[in-house]
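Why should sequence recovery work at all? Because a backbone constrains its sequence more than one might expect. Tight turns favour small or flexible residues, buried strands favour hydrophobic ones, and helices have their own preferences. The token representation captures these environments compactly. In the example below, the structure is given first.
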């Protein structure tokens, strides 16, 4: 008869893909390992909280206990990113902890405990492209305990906000251009002429002013003697042959 439920102390099928050892060697290491991998932690869970929880299973009176706790860190920011390693002094303590602590809640999150082949320096950093865990790269749901949106979704949201901001900026720029053109049109309509236009404007203004003055006084327009002399035709020259 097949078993419906797995044993609580059954080790995980997870294997470290970056380990230099073979799968068989990793299984042998897990069989005697005193290290646990703790997953699904909140980014805000502290080492003190971890110690308080896992110390309840440690056999301190029998010479055991927690050897050390290594908090997982974001590779870029060096801040907690949701996993940890807990090292005990004996394999039995690690198995008991996996049996009784895995599946319980810490910081309102159900945590996962797996036997680990053994911690080595460098494994405390996330392996995702953004520096955290790979699982947080592709997470689509919002998780406040793990930094909000997944990194890919966060990039999509940031790009969406950036495009919306650019659209608003373009709209404001177009509106400013419209207002500027309207103001410029009004200013051009009231702008005084310059150059040749100014001379023509002054001449026309003077001519109109003179006509208006004569019409207002009723005096007939007179022409100066010099102007009449200048306007009179020149006399015909006398043909010298007529005197011969």
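From this structural description, the recovered sequence reads:
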């Amino acid at each position: 008869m097949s078993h419906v439920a797995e044993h609580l102390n059954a080790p995980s099928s997870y294997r470290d893909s970056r380990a230099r050892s073979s799968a068989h060697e990793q299984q042998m290491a897990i069989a005697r390992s005193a290290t646990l991998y703790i997953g699904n932690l909140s980014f805000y869970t502290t080492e003190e909280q971890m110690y308080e929880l896992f110390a309840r299973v440690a056999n301190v009176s029998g010479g055991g206990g927690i050897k050390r706790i290594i908090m997982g860190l974001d590779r870029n920011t060096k801040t907690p990113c949701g996993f940890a390693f807990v090292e005990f002094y004996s394999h039995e303590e690690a198995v008991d902890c996996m049996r009784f602590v895995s599946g319980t809640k810490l910081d309102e999150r159900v945590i996962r405990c797996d036997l680990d082949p053994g911690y080595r320096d460098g494994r405390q950093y996330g392996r995702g492209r953004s520096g955290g865990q790979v699982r947080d790269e592709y997470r689509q749901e919002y998780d406040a305990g793990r930094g909000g949106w997944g990194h890919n979704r966060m990039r999509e949201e940031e790009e969406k906000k950036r495009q919306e901001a650019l659209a608003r900026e373009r709209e404001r720029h177009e509106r400013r251009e419209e207002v500027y053109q309207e103001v410029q049109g009004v200013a051009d309509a009231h702008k005084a002429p310059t150059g040749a236009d100014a001379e023509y404007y002054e001449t026309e203004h003077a001519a109109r002013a003179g006509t208006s003055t004569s019409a207002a006084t009723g005096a007939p327009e007179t022409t100066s003697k010099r102007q009449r002399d200048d306007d009179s035709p020149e006399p015909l020259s006398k043909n010298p042959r007529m005197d011969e």
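A few observations help interpret the result. The radius of gyration is 48 Å.
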